[in-house]
Amino acid sequence: MRIIAALAAAAIALLMVQAYLSLDQPRPAAALDVNQLETAAGTFRLEVELSFDAGPDRFAADLSNSSSLTIRFAGEAIYQTDKPVAAGQKVEVADIGDVVHGRNEFLIEATPQNPGPPLFAKVAIYSSERHEPLAERFVWAPAGSTQLSGVANFSTIETPVAGDAP
């Protein structure tokens, strides 16, 4: 008798899930028109600080095209170097163009000279209107990784500066 009750409960649960899935209509995703995005006011700069020494990939198929640090924004490389970057050295990208209101993504790619310990990069974005960063993000890769690659997301939603009246 218990087996029949358990099977009946399972059948009822499955029928309820099937009914929910057939009645729940997904909403269509809103189309994002890049041309209608509003550019954020002011100028922005980006600072990247690595926890490791970065250098060109010695094992790359094309050594002339190997970089130690690349920063991409909106599909374009806004900073790229094939020269070594020391651990703790701040790399600054001034006047980033086309920052929009809302979410912005920066792709950080760095090649360690000596893979071993975990890899970290601190990414901070600054506005021309503030001295402290709008936001800081950390990108990391586990120990033994041959490349640090990650996305740092920032939002430029207007927030009142301390002392401003609402």
Give a structural overview.
This protein is mainly beta and 166 residues long. The protein has a single domain, classed as Lipoxygenase-1 (Sandwich). The chain is 13% helix and 34% strand. The strands form two sheets. The chain has a four-stranded antiparallel sheet with strand order 4-1-6-7, with no helix packed on it. The chain has a four-stranded antiparallel sheet with strand order 3-2-5-8, with no helix packed on it. A hairpin with a 7-residue loop joins strand 6 (119-127) and strand 7 (135-141). The radius of gyration is 24 Å and the shape is elongated. It starts with a helix and ends in an 11-residue tail after the last strand.
Summarize the structure.
The chain has 166 residues and is mostly beta strands.
Number of strands: 8
Order the strands across the largest sheet as they lie in space: 4-1-6-7
The helix content is 10-25%
Low-confidence stretches: 159-166
> What CATH architecture label applies?
Sandwich
Strand content: 25-35%
Class based on secondary structure composition and strand pairing: mainly beta
Topology:
Layout: H1 2-23, E1 44-50, E2 69-73, E3 76-81, E4 90-96, E5 103-110, E6 119-127, E7 135-141, E8 148-155
Antiparallel strand pairs: 1-4, 1-6, 2-3, 2-5, 5-8, 6-7
Which terms summarize this structure?
Lipoxygenase-1; 34% strand; 4-stranded antiparallel beta sheet; mainly beta; 166 residues
